[in-house]
Amino acid sequence: xxxxxxxxxxxxxxxxxxxxxxxxxxxxxxxxxxxxxxxxxxxxxxxxxxxxxxxxxxxxxxxxxxxxxxxxxxxxxxxxxxxxxxx
Length: 87
Fold this sequence. Notes:
Layout: E1 2-5, E2 9-12, E3 17-21, H1 34-42, E4 50-56, E5 64-70, E6 76-81
Antiparallel strand pairs: 1-2, 3-4, 4-5, 5-6
């Protein structure tokens, strides 16, 4: 798989660190029950089809990226800087 970093151009997937689905950014509140934190830290969805994920160009410019991709076809639909938002 190849990702096109908006700052560095087309790169191999091995240059990037995958954080997870964008909903991972929605951390529980500080006073949330232990079960909620446990679910947040240890359970991840594994969707088949379109996803929006957070990746870091770890072996490159270090930028955080929002990647829209299809986990079934491996099509990359878009890559943009995370600082540009999720809309």
